[in-house]
């Protein structure tokens, strides 16, 4: 089918895939290690936290094997953190190309969500390898993995659509986002689980949309971590962020094009 015969959705999907491929190609074309850089960062972080909380201090949170417990949340966190960080420069980095093309501008955010999502999926074999090494038992809840990916993609796209245009007008927001992400890392159940929180904090932790997402990922190895109330709140908040993101983006798109 020729490009002009495609439906608008098909053209959008085609352009999104081309831009995502370009991002991945550019990111790894000048790197000797290539793909391994996408797994090295979370692997090093997981190794540090594993060493600190199992060899240095007596840990009272999480489940065994702790390295699997860590990676099940740390890998999706790297997807979220990387995509939102890149979204702060989504319009500023390629301003000329954005102004000169007529494709929907949301694609400049969604390509980052997709490319970081592909990197996450490419890093999942690391989790599988450690699960095999540590003899972690895989449960039927592993079937919820695609649901976790879907909810996270919705959440990441929604937050990205809010952040990307606002940074154009408020440049200090880029640094503020980095600080917020740093705080969010410790406020999210990554080095600990939602079930490890005091009862009075458990309810409020549900309103961090990453809590339910991480519980879905971890349920594959730790079924007790699955809390459907937290998952439901995460799904609802992810949809709310997406709706707000689309609204903010549509209201600011013209002004962004004039500003960049």
Radius of gyration, in Å, reads 19 Å
Percent strand: under 5%
Low-pLDDT residue intervals, each spanning 5 or more residues:
none
The averaged pLDDT comes out at: 87
Structural class label: mainly alpha
Question: How many distinct helices?
Answer: 10
Gross geometry: globular
In whole angstroms, how far apart are the ends? 35 Å
Tell me the helix content.
over 70%
The figure for the number of domains is: 1
Q: What is the count of β-strands? A: 0
Largest pleated sheet: none
What does this structure look like?
This protein has 260 residues and is mainly alpha-helical. The chain has one domain. Helices cover 72% and strands 0% of the residues. The protein has ten helices and no strands. The chain has helices at residues 8-29, 36-56, 66-87, 95-100, 107-133, 145-169, 173-187, 199-205, 209-218, 228-259. Helix 3 packs parallel to helix 6 (145-169) and helix 3 crosses helix 9 (209-218). The longest helix has 32 residues, at 228-259. It is globular, with a radius of gyration of 19 Å. The relative contact order is 0.14.
Keywords:
mainly alpha
Q: In brief, what are we looking at here?
A:
By secondary structure, this protein is mainly α. The protein has ten helices and no strands.
Strand-helix topology:
Blueprint: H1 8-29, H2 36-56, H3 66-87, H4 95-100, H5 107-133, H6 145-169, H7 173-187, H8 199-205, H9 209-218, H10 228-259
Helix pairs in contact: 1-5, 2-3, 3-5, 3-6, 3-7, 3-9, 5-6, 6-9, 6-10, 9-10
């Amino acid at each position: 089918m020729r490009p002009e015969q495609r439906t608008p959705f098909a053209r959008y999907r085609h352009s999104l895939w081309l831009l995502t491929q370009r991002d991945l190609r550019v990111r790894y074309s000048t790197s000797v290690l290539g793909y391994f850089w996408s797994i090295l960062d979370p692997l090093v972080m997981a190794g540090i936290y594993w060493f600190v909380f199992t060899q240095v201090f007596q840990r009272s949170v999480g489940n065994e094997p702790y390295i699997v417990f860590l990676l099940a949340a740390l890998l999706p966190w790297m997807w979220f953190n990387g995509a939102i960080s890149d979204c702060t420069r989504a319009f500023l980095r390629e301003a000329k190309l954005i102004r000169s093309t007529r494709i929907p501008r949301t694609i400049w955010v969604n390509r980052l969500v997709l490319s970081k999502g592909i990197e996450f999926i490419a890093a999942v074999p690391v989790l599988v390898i450690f699960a095999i090494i540590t003899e972690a038992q895989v449960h039927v809840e592993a079937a919820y993995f695609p649901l976790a990916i879907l909810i996270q993609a919705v959440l990441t796209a929604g937050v990205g659509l809010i952040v990307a245009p606002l940074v154009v007008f408020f440049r200090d927001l880029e640094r503020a986002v980095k600080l917020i992400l740093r705080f969010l890392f410790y406020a999210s159940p990554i080095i600990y689980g939602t079930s490890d929180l005091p009862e009075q904090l458990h309810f409020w932790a549900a309103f961090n949309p990453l809590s339910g997402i991480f519980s879905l990922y971890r349920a594959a190895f730790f079924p007790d971590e699955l809390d459907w109330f937290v998952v439901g709140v995460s799904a609802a908040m992810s949809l709310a962020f997406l709706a707000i993101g689309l609204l903010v983006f549509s209201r600011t798109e013209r002004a962004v094009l004039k500003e960049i």
